[in-house]
């Protein structure tokens, strides 16, 4: 572990006692830092707060008093989900106290090289693919960040024999100053999280911090088909490795005669790739580029691409029942994600969609419904979704109370060769605690059909 001495004796305030805050507090305390943790939840029943206090960490619960900033704080580590408009965070910025996320800590202490992945969509799939592709290579891949274990916790245990593969959000990257991965991956940039960042430009700048400190000895892999990403990459000092599903870019990953290449090296024929969808082809190309640069073999990459059917809840192939293929895309919590899922199938799709009503219409989804033969809606947006289906010319539109009921309804209107796809285009919180719970309910209902 590197740079432990950097933290020794520092006064550090951690704001937000979620998984990352809890891990960072214990870690920094072990380095000899003077750590104070602040959480808005009351102390009563706060097991994490009690555990931290037992090892000598000061914990302030129930609010965010400004007095916490009066003790010569060297820097503050905030939970990524806490906005900068939070009064305590805003006051820290005003007092010129550095505000980090635990990603900054991970980058400072890691002995392992780092592959960092960001983008609006596809991060988890790409991160998982890279982790699988690097198995059996010279270094041991360890997946961390938004999936897997807290990044700083993994970094503390890593050695030079490991390679950390980290999925990072814009929220996490905003709170970095010196973070410098050896390989960075920027998948795409769509309008998202504008309530947090204020504008798509600020959102893009936060994402681009993934390559901000890279130099000529590092690599940045980016989507050359995305104009916003390409523009942001002009400022990167790293070696540029583009990927494209539209053009042959000999310096990166590209398609030629239905075959995927990386820098003129044949990787795999497209027909042999199991994971469906053009958007996933972009994710695959990014993963191939990162894995090849990190030392993966073409044999291992090919093995992964001919067997990997998707991350759970992300256009995940579930099974086939009487010739009907079922796909779970419960992670599609917005219109953009559902459009991407629908583009993976040419025709004969039965779509299950609906969920939390955030006040938007589904007009943007209408052009993508051309391959949908039956629409089954549920949740708060059921009628809005049905209206979009009618405008798209879908003749058969059915309503169900929830996902569990939607599955047999969809099956009853299907035939051999159809695709039955859960891709809600909405958050799950009107009926389910998480999109994972919604997806699990879908899978359970599918298996009941057997």
Automatic annotation (TrEMBL):
Keywords: ATP-binding, Cell cycle, Cell division, Cell shape, Cell wall biogenesis/degradation, Cytoplasm, Ligase, Nucleotide-binding, Peptidoglycan synthesis. Gene3D superfamilies: Mur ligase, C-terminal domain, Mur-like, catalytic domain, NAD(P)-binding Rossmann-like Domain. Pathway: Cell wall biogenesis; peptidoglycan biosynthesis. ATP binds at residues 119-125. One of its GO terms (biological process) is cell wall organization. Its main location: cytoplasm. Residues 117-290 form the Mur ligase central domain. It catalyses: UDP-N-acetyl-alpha-D-muramoyl-L-alanine + D-glutamate + ATP = UDP-N-acetyl-alpha-D-muramoyl-L-alanyl-D-glutamate + ADP + phosphate + H(+). Cell wall formation. Catalyzes the addition of glutamate to the nucleotide precursor UDP-N-acetylmuramoyl-L-alanine (UMA). Belongs to the MurCDEF family. This is UDP-N-acetylmuramoylalanine--D-glutamate ligase. It comes from Fictibacillus arsenicus. The gene is murD.
């Amino acid at each position: 572990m590197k740079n432990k001495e950097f933290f020794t004796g520092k006064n550090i305030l951690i704001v937000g006692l979620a998984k990352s805050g809890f891990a960072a507090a214990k870690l920094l305390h072990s380095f000899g830092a003077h750590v104070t943790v602040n959480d808005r939840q009351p102390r009563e029943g706060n097991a994490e707060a009690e555990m931290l206090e037992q090892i000598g960490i000061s914990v302030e619960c129930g609010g965010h008093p400004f007095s916490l900033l009066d003790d010569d704080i060297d820097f503050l580590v905030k939970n990524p989900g806490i906005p900068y408009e939070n009064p305590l965070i805003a006051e820290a910025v005003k007092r010129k106290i550095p505000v980090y996320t635990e990603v900054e800590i991970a980058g400072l202490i890691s002995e392992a090289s780092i592959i960092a992945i960001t983008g609006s969509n596809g991060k988890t799939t790409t991160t998982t693919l890279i982790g699988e592709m690097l198995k059996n290579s010279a270094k041991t891949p360890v997946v961390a960040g938004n999936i897997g274990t807290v990044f700083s916790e993994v970094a503390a245990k890593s050695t030079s024999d490991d390679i950390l593969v980290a999925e990072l959000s814009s929220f996490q990257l905003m709170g970095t100053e010196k973070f410098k991965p050896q390989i960075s991956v920027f998948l795409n940039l769509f309008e998202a999280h504008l309530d947090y960042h204020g504008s798509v430009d600020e959102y893009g700048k936060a994402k681009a911090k993934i390559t901000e400190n890279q130099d000529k000895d590092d690599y940045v892999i980016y989507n050359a088909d995305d104009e916003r990403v390409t523009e942001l990459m002009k400022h990167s000092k790293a070696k540029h490795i583009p990927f494209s599903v539209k053009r042959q870019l000999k310096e990166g990953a590209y398609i030629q005669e239905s075959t995927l290449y990386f820098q003129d090296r044949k990787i795999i024929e497209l027909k042999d790739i199991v994971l469906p969808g053009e958007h996933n082809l972009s994710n695959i190309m990014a993963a191939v580029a990162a894995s090849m640069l990190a030392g993966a073999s073409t044999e291992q990459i090919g093995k992964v691409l001919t067997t990997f059917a998707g991350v759970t809840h992300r256009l995940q192939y579930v099974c086939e029942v009487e010739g009907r293929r079922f796909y779970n895309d419960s992670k599609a919590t917005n219109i953009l994600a559902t459009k991407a899922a629908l583009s993976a199938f040419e025709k004969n799709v039965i779509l299950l969609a609906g969920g939390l009503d955030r006040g938007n219409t589904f007009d943007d989804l209408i052009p993508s419904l051309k391959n949908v033969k039956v629409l089954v809606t549920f949740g708060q947006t059921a009628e809005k979704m049905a209206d979009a289906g009618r405008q798209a010319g879908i003749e058969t539109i059915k309503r169900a109370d929830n996902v569990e009921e939607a599955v047999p309804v969809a099956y009853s209107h299907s035939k051999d060769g159809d695709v039955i796809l859960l891709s809600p285009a909405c958050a799950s919180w009107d009926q389910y605690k998480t999109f994972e719970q919604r997806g699990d309910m879908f899978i359970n209902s599918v298996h009941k059909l057997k």
